[in-house]
Fold these 3 entries.
Entry 1:
Amino acid sequence: MGRKSNVLLLCSFGFILCIAKLALHSHYPNIESFSKKNLQYYVDSPSCKMPKSNPFSADIMKVFKKKHFKECSTDNDLVLSEFDPELRQYRLYIDDGIFEKLSKKVPNATLRCQYQVIGRNKSASYPDKDFTLSDPRPLNQSFLVPKDIDFLSTQCYAVNGKKEIKLLQEDGFLFVQDRLSHNTKNPEGDRPDEESKPNVIILGIDSTSRLNLRRSMPKLHEFLQRPGWFEMQGFNKVGENTIPNLLAMLTGNAEEKAMAQSRFSHGGFIDKLKYIWQRFKNYGYQTAFGEDCGKINTFNYNKPGFKKQPVDYYLRNFIVALETILKTRREFGNVFCLGRKLGFKYIFDFARQFMQRFEKVAPVFGIFWSNSFTHEDFLGATALDKVFWEYLLVYDALGFFNRSIVFVLSDHGYRYGVTRQNAKSGYLEERLPMMFIYVPPWFRKRYPQYVENLRTNQNRLSSGFDVHMTLHHLLQLNVTSMSKFSPNLRASQCRGCQSLFFELPHNRKCSQAGIRDKWCSCEPIETVTNKKHITKVALEVVRHMNQHLEDRNLTEICENYTLKKVVHMDRKIPVTDESVEDDELHTYVISFYTRPTLAHFEATVQWNTHKKSLIMKVDEISRLESYKKHSKCTNDPVIKKYCICIPF
Ligand SMILES: *[C@@H]1O[C@H](CO)[C@@H](O)[C@H](O)[C@H]1NC(C)=O
Ligand SMILES: *[C@@H]1O[C@H](CO)[C@@H](O)[C@H](O)[C@H]1NC(C)=O
Ligand SMILES: *[C@@H]1O[C@H](CO)[C@@H](O)[C@H](O)[C@H]1NC(C)=O
Ligand SMILES: *[C@@H]1O[C@H](CO)[C@@H](O)[C@H](O)[C@H]1NC(C)=O
Ligand SMILES: *[C@@H]1O[C@H](CO)[C@@H](O)[C@H](O)[C@H]1NC(C)=O
Ligand SMILES: *[C@@H]1O[C@H](CO)[C@@H](O)[C@H](O)[C@H]1NC(C)=O
Ligand SMILES: *[C@@H]1O[C@H](CO)[C@@H](O)[C@H](O)[C@H]1NC(C)=O
């Protein structure tokens, strides 16, 4: 919305208010005027007003551009994988017609294909970082894949005598091998009834706010409007990046303390957490986890990963192997193509095979996560929209949505880049990831009260800890209130959090949902774009920091700061009438770099517009990058955070 139309709307609420606001805004010509009444809220209660913002606002549309999706390969597949339902085994076929086409330029060519088995190296010190690769073996027509092979790579060559060899195609294949011991009479009919053990599928896209979903993925968004889908519009992130937010959902504890104490880097720590998939396993589920982009995988980015394979079907080693042995192409800042196929497609094909394979055999719990398109580039999602949507159509045609509870979700929105620097909605965008929950027709019929609650909860404040409780609830749907939940199932970091199938309190506060103040979006906020004003505040912040060094007698060990540049500055807008009493005091959240060494800080400060003075607690500042290297002169964890040690 433009400033002019905003002012007009504002004026229609009352002449006096209008004059007052206009007067106020003359100090801040670039802060969009903000009326409490003409706003719509995702959550609207006395203690939480979570503002809805426009995904198509002019400031963001200026930098928004649909990205073209480039296929990894336009050739047809020479090697195809099929499941033989008679033998209950996979087969690889070679398409001779495709070979004819591909080998035209090689005279008198004959085809030679080979395969290599890929696996997990259990004896490696960091099995998640490694993989095993067998020697090449000849690949014959209609190759029946042995049941102990999970992954393999293939290479096909056009060969003319011994003289000329041309690599035609190389690929990776994954097989969901059924290792259950079956009732021999009816191996396909073992599955417990779907209503008592529904499939649970989590489809995740990294760094996708609900705003960017609407802006960049219209097809996906439209699919998510179908009956049975519910959007948790009051869903707020609980931690900075992927790991705390996923851990909140998967373990009930964001483990930020353990992260700060570097416990994640100790081999085995990651294995010890209590993941929800273990409970699903205990209830007879088959479990799966797949993620594209090996470098930035949730449990592996700057971390050792799992020692022991965490789920029954684990894609990690396959992806690491393909990233190593196949030709890759980067796009949107990450590995995008693994050879001839999109990394994303490996993940979502894995999901399809996993669900298909156990359709009549066992209930399944799976997490399928994509980083490749969206992690670095806020426009990457525009290229992912159609691909993602087409998978949902396939899943629908296969009946997955008749049998499964499905989550389409993200961990957080964009934390840096243009949305944070240039757009007023950046602060919210970072904190409000998308969160959609699907329940199939039978569920809606059998549990109308749960569905009613889910509908109500769409506009209540919720968090990843509630999602965690919802997952627990799916294992015991006959439990009809939180008071009947076993206390040891409660999310350890938010004992009062609850299943989203039960009604959330209307007047819930962030603290009741396990959301710290820093991430809480219950207070509306806008990104300030008036550069002069930003600089004025930032220089004051830096001055306070230098003063603080003096006050704490740290100037002999710590460098004096100078401002390098401000990344963004957000302004909190108080909602409750008590907190507006001091019109002159504004709360800003400011992210900036200082020299020397380009330290990156985020500070929450109060600015007195009248006195042009600042209130700031320097010890509470956040440091946004690793500071190990420059903080060796002190052992105090608080001082370490901001002291740039003077080199001697
Ligand atoms: C292809 O094979 C034919 C007959 O087998 C032979 O006459 C011809 O010389 C071969 N061409 C090449 C380029 O090797
Ligand atoms: C597995 O890792 C161990 C330890 O690094 C190494 O010695 C061994 O050769 C690896 N095995 C395979 C099959 O790659
Ligand atoms: C593939 O074919 C070759 C030659 O025809 C044969 O020696 C080999 O045993 C076959 N391999 C498999 C796995 O069937
Ligand atoms: C899903 O269920 C509906 C209604 O029960 C049925 O009409 C439809 O054919 C099913 N879809 C698939 C693909 O099984
Ligand atoms: C729910 O059902 C399970 C399995 O049928 C049973 O063991 C459990 O006691 C039931 N719980 C409640 C609260 O009814
Ligand atoms: C200030 O720090 C220096 C060096 O770290 C120390 O020698 C000095 O005693 C300190 N002064 C006060 C007043 O604490
Ligand atoms: C520290 O830096 C500020 C600029 O940020 C400068 O004004 C001040 O003089 C410096 N102080 C010292 C002690 O170098």
Note: The longest helix spans residues 531-551.
Entry 2:
Amino acid sequence: MPLLLALVTLALLACGLAFDLGQWTRCVPIPPQMGVCRDLGYTEMRLPNLLGHGSLEAVPSSEDWRPLLDAGCHAQARDFLCALIAPMCLDTFVQPCHSLCVAVRDSCAPVLACQGHAWPEALDCDRFPAQEEMCLPPVPKYDSPFSKGLPQPACQHCPTVEELPSLRSVLDALCLNDFAVKAKLHRRRSPWKETEFEVEGRVEFVRQGPLLPYDTQSLLRRWLLLNLSCARLLVRPGRAQLYLLTGGARPDGSLALARLFPWHKRDANIAHAARKWKHHKC
Ligand SMILES: *[C@@H]1O[C@H](CO)[C@@H](O)[C@H](O)[C@H]1NC(C)=O
């Protein structure tokens, strides 16, 4: 079996080099700049990696991928990327399967596109083997219809922020949009090695609309991570900021934010509108 595996793997290596793994490759500890791949349960990686980087200096920092991974586009996105840039130090290379690549690409390419990048050439799924048993396959539980059915954040222009709104203006936003939530948005001062944006504490519904109670916090977080330049405009680093966020469903089912109201303590109109809303006639 190991021989067969080795033969198949050799046949699959894009360059077609029939090399002896021991002689032509080496194992090195996964360095700190590859932090994203460090907590996958192995500590050593093989060089050259499956993208052909021969030295650690040549390997792009895995931090480059953090915004994509943090956006939570696919549960196996990290396994997929790390199998390529920091392959486990076994006596053979285990490539991601074509099917895993397609699954990750289909859910992550839209996120990359929203961040202004095309799906990288180096990750072209046609490069990867179709034999499920000789490669890293997709894990079926990750694409259950349940997780697929969850609403996804929309890639959109940055919503408008209205400081110190009038009562009228908040009530109008509540009437015109499908949902409204009260949420605390937090931006870390030094996001290195950590997700830059979080939604702190519980999200409160003013108007629930299409939002799912158990997924809203995660949805808002994914929304922030989808367009970091927009999120950075909306949230200052440091203390979490309370917002009333309104938005609606798009025809494709994704959820877009529309008008945002910073909810300051001194600002009575938002609290008033949120209370009045239940009995308000739009
Ligand atoms: C992301 O946000 C920036 C800043 O507001 C905006 O200019 C850009 O259009 C947004 N990206 C997309 C894809 O909408």
Note: The first strand starts at residue 26 and ends at 29.
Entry 3:
Amino acid sequence: MVHLNQHFLEIPETYLFSEIAKRVDAYKKANPEANIIRMGIGDVTRPLPEACIEAMHKAVDEMGKAETFRGYGPEQGYDFLREKIVEFDYAARGVKISKDEVFVSDGAKSDTGNIGDILALANKIAVTDPVYPVYVDTNAMAGRGGKLKENGCWDNIYYMPCMAENGFVPALPAEAVDVIYLCYPNNPTGTTLTKEQLKVWVDYATEHKALILFDAAYEAFITEKDVPHSIYEIEGAEKVAIEFRSYSKTAGFTGTRCSYTVVPKACMAYDKNGREVSLNPLWNRRQCTKFNGTPYIIQRGAEAVYSEKGMAEVKDTIAYYLENAKIIRNALSAKGYEVFGGINSPYVWMKTPSGSTSWEFFDYLLQSKNIVTTPGAGFGPSGEGYIRLTAFSTKEKTLEAMERI
Ligand SMILES: *Cc1c(COP(=O)(O)O)cnc(C)c1O
């Protein structure tokens, strides 16, 4: 008899986006002429940089000739891309990362989900609340969740509330935790940590022999000086942190798929005898066994992000989204709403007015303004009383939506 992974039966269906779709569909059916603007999308809309397209066209042609054809590539990624990452994303910021600490892959979602393969089941996980659901659900699938509570939280996962009251800065855990997921700039709140605030976490992890899983998918949106682009800008972080980066939000690769994970050789975990072991060879072993590399064509596209033309185009696209975020921020602030994020992030996190719940305010915006947002409660209990607006729409639609408000 085949037994299934029981944990899958315990994980609730992802209710958030299906519930949004259901409510939007119902409204559209009742009001077919409504001009609905979507400010809830978590996907980019601007096309890929021309530099990337040109590089990928060239790579396609190479694949069509016997002399330049490439089959299986290195599981860790091609040197041409790993070298660019080391030079532009790290050395340029004074961070020393070597090529063999960089693992190119097909998504930060997959990597943040898969990293648990090399970590013991017994680890106590800590996440911020609200949270990117991937961190929680993948741990629940593996059996690290414990029991699901009525509020939708797992009793074996430690949740760190991030709200206006604490400036969206998580407090250090009151009990010992082993693995800490941090995502900055944050999805969904759009807020960041300063170097000093992030250092508190690096120091905690050092002292407690814990591991930080740092998701920097929105790094390219950082505009303020004191906000670290990489956790390795903090002294000692290479011993306690793994960093995830992605070309998805940076360069529009959400459908093209390319990302990378940095596992420094100095980054340690402990075996059952308490002996220190480097995680780098473990992740290498994991990738070599379960992953056969990101396509050559795609890696050539990602490499072009670092060309002069590519960097200029990426900068323009990010500026376009950040301009939208500013439009949203300014319009909502002028209306007296309390808003957060949107400065180093494509996300604006807004407090719902006069004590209405996330879903009540979602319904109000849908029905009276024909604007679709994302209810904060869908990201965790501390997201209740907030909604998320994204800057990924067109400027025209963003302006129109804000005019309606
Ligand atoms: C969009 C996003 C990613 C990127 O995921 P990919 O799989 O690389 O497209 C990672 N983390 C967070 C928090 C995100 O919102």
Note: Residues 107-109, 132, 183, 187, 215, 217, 246, 248-249, 254, 259 surround pyridoxal-5'-phosphate (CB under 6 Å).
